[in-house]
Amino acid sequence: MDNDTGSVNHKLGRVFNIQKFSVHDGPGIRDVVFMKGCPLRCLWCCNPESQNTFPEIGYIQNKCIGIQECGYCIKACPKKAITNSTVETPKIDIDRRLCDHCGKCVDVCPARAITLFGQMMSVEDVIKEVQGGNASWRTGGGITVSGGELLLQADFVHDLLKECKKRGIDTAIETSGYGDWRELERICRHCNLIFYDVKCMDSDKHKAFTGVNNEVILDNILKVASQFPETPVIVRTPVIPEFNDSWKDIKAIVEFITQLQNLTEYELMAYHAFGEPKYRQLGRKYRLERVKPPKKEYISDLQQRANAILKKKSYK
Amino acid sequence: MEAAAKVLTPQEERIIKGLDKEELTTEEAKNKRQRVNKLLARFRKVPRVDIQRALLFTESFQETESLPVVLRWAKAMENVLNKIEVVINDDELIVGTCGGTGRHSILYPELRGCWLEEGLQRLKEQGAYLVSDEDIKTVKEKIVPYWRGKTAHETYISLLPEETRYLIYGDDNYGASGLMQDNANINATLNWAVDYQKVLEKGFLGIKKDAEEKLNSLDVVDPQNHIQKTPFLKAVIIVCDAMIAFAKRYAELAREMARNEKDKIRKKELERIAEVCEWVPANPARTFHEAVQSQWFTQLGCRLEQPTTGVISNGRIDQYLYPYYKKDLEEGRINEDSALELLECLWLKIADFVPLNATNAKSFWEGYAHFEQTVIGGQTRDGQDATNELSYLILKSKKEFPLHYPDLSVRIHSQTPEPFLREVCELIREGTGFPKLLNDEEIIPHLLAQGATLEDARDYTGCACTEIRMINTSTYMVVGGNINLPAALEMALNDGVLKLKGNKQRLGVTTGDARNFATFDELMNAFRLQVEYLVRHFYIRQTALEMTNAMKLAAPLMSSLHDVCMNELTDIHQPLKGGVSADTGNINLNGFGTAVESLAAIKKLVYDDKKITMNELLEALEANFEGKEALRQMLLNAPKYGNNAPYADQIAREVDAMLLTTARKFKTPNGHQYIKFVPVTSHVGLGVVMGATPNGRKAGEPLSEGISPTQGVDMKGPLSTLLSIDRAKSRKYANSLARLLNIKLSPQVVAGEKGLQDLMSMVRTFCDLKLWHLQFNILNSDILRDAQKNPEKYRNLIVRVAGYSAYFVDLSPQLQNEIINRTEHQHM
Ligand code: SF4
Ligand code: SF4
Questions:
Q1: What is the pLDDT of residues A209-246, one digit of tens each?
Q2: Which of A212, B253, B395, B562 is the most buried (most CB within 10 A)?
Q3: Under an 8 A CB cutoff, do B644 and A19 touch?
Q4: Residues β-bridged to residue B737
Q5: A109 and A198 part of one domain
Q6: pLDDT at B518
Q7: CB–CB of B719 and A21 under 8 A?
Q8: Active site residues of B
């Protein structure tokens, strides 16, 4: 059941970024709201700061101006988690095991070398931030809610999208589809466009590379298609070497999605390693270091073959 | 979220593939317009200084000392037009040059002849202009001695109180202090576009006839006639005759060359040239070819007559040439290709003339700055959309013609047709920085508020950098100058003391020790007082310049094409009763973004959050942040203007309101002056001499440009920048204009059909927001960095600097860096 939202919605959600002026996530010029927290752990994830539901601190070493001139964070940390770096002198090290994400170091860091991923924002805060750029709504753009996985904060996302629609802001979501159907159903009611990831048809392999099986995901997308036949769906597949980059893998996905009557586009997204520095910022290890991005020609060949099948099935 | 692949603009692709010699950019164009391609192949980059105009002008002035200035000017023009070398080069269709064959600059010794003595030598050494030793000798011996003590610049300097002079010039009357910077010794007139249509429709014979009739009906007993009207009309008649005679010299030359020409085709062409020059500009143009030739003769005459800021504008070229284009097309005399060929022959003529903007103040006007604004689109006098086939054809030429001439502007309004906007955005996407966009929705109401009629307002043309002009109504305005806003703020922080080039001096007013300011408002007030002090001196300067120019300058040719002058029968430099002095902003403010961000940082860190003290701030600035990096980082990370966030945008609005109010406190004989935000490249030059500023900027770095935020701080995408610019407009009075805004985009942001649509949306948003001006740079910084390292490879890389495009490799390293650093609004 929808809760009727009042004029000012104070419901809180955890957002790790609002990207202004995005031109690749739906029609027009858009603002993308990234929700924090994801039940999947895709090895290639290029937004590792999106995965944990709790706030996290990121540290960008080359922005740090060093302890000789600064060192404010060391003094500010109540947990003694920050110390003079023994390796990268004269900079700092953060012991993530001691850190409880209180954010005190973030407040004092003059260089914004330390940042906090995951601010609590109300629906109203988000609307203000995105509507502040209200000129973009005249330009065929709108808001795209992404993640993380927005289904983990479904209530908030639902209210946000509903509020946007009420104000005439175009809405889109980007989802892995991994979550409760009832939540997804509520959210889809307020969406003008759905980006839906289908990563692999082989459930075991899916689990090995993302941490979860794919049954729920596939089940949900069929439900989306049957319940929201008017809402366009764009299916995306990240093409990851050694995981799903064979034509066999892609073909299986393509054959599956031909049954979606609201499919408007199928997009292959080539693996890239641009997320790697973020792993360092979070003090984590990037596990696909050896993996090379696939060749451009290879991807466009796969895309063409996929399109050929989709066309043959008399899909536009 | 996917990483965008690197997308190159067409310009970048041509460069990387090594296709960077001067030629038309498509095979089809090359085949269809071989003549243009041949002319381009001979195009020479480095201009030569040609001294003919200076010599002939001086020669005449030596003989006319007893005459009124307007007649002296006419006779000098006559001497120049009768004797200057006439040349017709191979393959040319449009003929006429101000200074011989090839690319050239000419000299105007009447303005600042004394500078030439050392200035030419310096130009030669810098290598940006070719000057022969012989010519330098001639200038020193024959030209400078006559003008010493007689130039407009000397009169002007002598009319300035010493305090004012020192604030502007410091120790060098041909340089700049850095606190203010004057363009008065470069150009005579702020900007100009003449009524070309008048020449096309009446011819100079018709204009002369009007003058003769008026002269005959003047009552000779009336003293006002004696003093003013008679000499003016006589001057008009002299220049009309001189213009006609000049064209006839070309007709004769063409005929003679035709007689000796072996090649049958060229022979015919030369005969045609002879016929055209025999007929125009004396008579009304009958064909497109005649119209283009007549237009060129007219602007050539204007270029010889006076140096106007950034050279004379082409005006609304798609409007006044259209009837000739249409008629020729209908009657089968031309087709699209031959029309393009003629237009491009005109572009080549324009490209061959380089305004000499050098002074002793370095890096103020770099890269052969030129603004012969060529305006297309917009509205007709009765408010319809004015776009026609010629507008499209000119856009096409701009895509295919490789030189950054002419400076192209498109007037955008709410009814700009979608297909036209599409073509405009396609051209923007080429990445050459063309066209610049002027917004009718802002400019027309602005002109109405100054008292223009609706028809005249709708018929405005772009002029100079981002300024505007109503060709028959706007009166003349002397050249303006720059005020360095961050320097005013520094004086507010230091009780009137400013450090320039490392020397501290009390240049401003005493506003007290900033350490004792209890509130931010006290600081704002001190800032206001410093600005007011500078603006006051600016007005003193402005009056001195208006007086000087009325005494020293005349422009009978340009005046003969101006309705107000022909009604009042006086030269444009004299006080005029009619007309609208809604001219184009003289108080040019530099470093608006730097000042606003500095104020926002101080408000936040010193007054609101109390994270630092005023004393700490001042010490850090004094030390140029040596050992104070933490403090500098706080300043850098304070709220920034340009992100559509209220904190800094609100301060921008307050500063804007303060500036508009201050500008209205004073008057010159012409009335209140307007403020504008057109740095050209002076924000770099003014930055070089300045110390550190409270926005975290280190000493010597460039100031912010135009109305834009500081380079690199607007991180929330161009729409947020547009909105901030909108918020920063206080709308207190309609006395601010030419708010220059430069947005740089990566090619991938505008790639593909979607990218094109998004770009169109941005332009529509700009139009909706009623912002004055917008220009795009579409490049990526890797390319620019590579161009810095390998200038040879990138000779042809054109970037938009500020209101004009220039070759990237022509710019100084500082300006190159500045362009690289301007935020690249790039999607991740
Ligand atoms: S977030 Fe808190 S606990 Fe963690 S490092 Fe910073 S100050 Fe220490
Ligand atoms: S506060 Fe920031 S800049 Fe200072 S030492 Fe810590 S991380 Fe580095």
A1: 999 999 999 999 999 999 999 999 999 999 999 899 99
A2: B562
A3: no
A4: B676
A5: no
A6: 96
A7: yes
A8: 465, 467
Q: Answer yes or no: is A80 within a domain.
A: yes
Gap between the Cα atoms of B114 and B93, Å rounded: 38
Ligand 1 atom showing the smallest separation from residue A100 Cα: 3
- What 3-state DSSP class applies to A82? strand
B124 found inside a domain:
yes
Number of separate domains in chain B: 1
- A25 to B4: CB separation less than 8 angstroms, yes or no: no
Could you tell me the residue range of the domain that residue B245 belongs to? 47-150+183-310
Higher pLDDT, A315 or B424: B424
- Both A131 and A271 in one domain: the answer is yes
B7 touches chain A (CB under 8 A): no
Q: Looking at residue A46, what is its pLDDT?
A: 84
Provide DSSP, A114-132: EEEE-EEEEHHHHHHHHHT
Write down the pLDDT at residue B191. Answer: 75
Same domain, A187 and A112: no
Name the residue range of residue A78's domain.
Answer: 56-117
| Structural domains of chain A, count | 2
Please write the tens of the pLDDT for every residue from A185-218.
999 999 999 999 999 999 999 999 999 999 999 9
How far CA B580 is from CA of A179, A180, B431, B678, in Å, comes to 68, 70, 37, 22
Tell me, yes or no, whether A272 lies in a domain. Answer: yes
Does some domain include residue B165?
A: no
* B642: in domain: no
Helix axes A215-227, A181-188, angle to 10 degrees: 40
Together in a domain, A102 and A135: no
Tell which atom from ligand 2 comes closest to the C-alpha of A71: 5
Provide the pLDDT for residue B727. Answer: 85
CA distances A305 to A55, A252, B279, B339, Å, are 42, 12, 67, 47
CATH number at residue A90: 3.30.70.20
Residues of B in contact with A19 (CB under 8 A): 828
Task: Please answer whether residues B475 and B572 qualify as being in contact, where contact means their C-beta atoms are separated by less than 8 angstroms.
Answer: yes
CATH code assigned at A156: 3.20.20.70
* Whole-angstrom distance, CA of residue B556 vs CA of residue B560: 6
Which residue out of A18, A25, A29, A50 would a mutagenesis test of the B interface target, given it has the greatest number of B Cβ atoms within 10 Å?
A29
How would you classify the pairing of strands B736-739 and B805-807?
A: unpaired
- Name residues contacting ligand 2 (CB within 6 A): A 64-65, 67, 70-73, 92, 108-109, 111, 113-114
Q: What pLDDT is attached to residue A231?
A: 96
Closest partner residue to A136 among B1, B5, B719, by Cβ? B719
Asked if A105 and A195 sit in the same domain, the reply is no
**Cβ(A79) to ligand 1 under 6 A?**
yes
| pTM of this structure | 0.88
Asked if A33 and A64 sit in the same domain, the reply is no
Cβ atoms B82, B170 nearer than 8 A: no
- In Å, how far is B11's CA from the nearest CA of chain A? 22
Residue B122 lies in a domain: yes
Chain B residues with CB-CB distance to A269 below 8 A: 2
Question: Residue B4's pLDDT is what?
Answer: 37
What sign does the dihedral B319-B325-B327-B329 (CA atoms) show? negative
**CB-based contact, B441 to chain A, within 8 Å:** no
Kindly compute the dihedral angle of the four CA atoms of residues A308, A312, A316, B5, in this order, to the nearest 10 degrees. Answer: -10
Quick one: which ligand is closest to A89's CA? 2
Does the beta carbon of A108 sit less than 6 angstroms from any atom of ligand 1?
A: no
Q: Are residues A190 and A278 in the same domain?
A: yes
- Is there a domain that residue A34 lies in? yes
Residues in chain B, pLDDT under 50: 1-5, 363-365, 802-804, 823, 825-828
Q: What is the model's pLDDT at position A290?
A: 84
For A111-145, what is each residue's pLDDT tens digit? 989 999 999 999 999 998 886 656 666 677 899 99
Q: A130 lies in a domain?
A: yes
What is the DSSP code (8-state) at residue B604? I
Distance (Å, whole) CA B326 – CA B657: 48
pLDDT in tens, A10-42: 899 999 988 887 878 888 888 899 999 999 999
